[in-house]
Design a protein that fits this description.
Blueprint: H1 2-11, H2 13-32, H3 39-50, H4 56-63, H5 67-79, E1 83-87, E2 94-98, H6 100-124, H7 126-143
Antiparallel strand pairs: 1-2
Helix pairs in contact: 2-6, 6-7
Amino acid sequence: MKERCLNVAQTCMFNKTRAISRYVTNLYANALKDVGVTPVQFSMLTAVQLISNANVNNLSNALMMDRTTLNRNLKPLVRDGFIDIQESTDRRERKISITQEGKEVYEKGYKKWEEAQRELEEVIGTEDWLTMNSLFDTIIARIK
């Protein structure tokens, strides 16, 4: 039994990725808190600006997030006036766009995001940072 527990403790990718995820989430959350958005919301603002004719379906796919979670995370962005959601000619589809206020918040957030990126790169080391970026891109492409 102890041997199995040691195997899990030493090799479990779930535990390792969760530990890293908690650290990274806290780093970016602390950097963005004064801006008034979470790291997830900042990612959503990024995606809305990159995707032409953004809607729930293509945002959901781009962010690898289910539609329910996406809609729940959009609500505070709409409430705070950072995102606008409009009905389209197809009533099943809603067009999502960033507002001027959202762009201003994004610009402030981008500076904080850059600070968090630099801090994380310093912790990881530039060589491992570059390796991780490449490896994560490969893994994301495989699981999409």
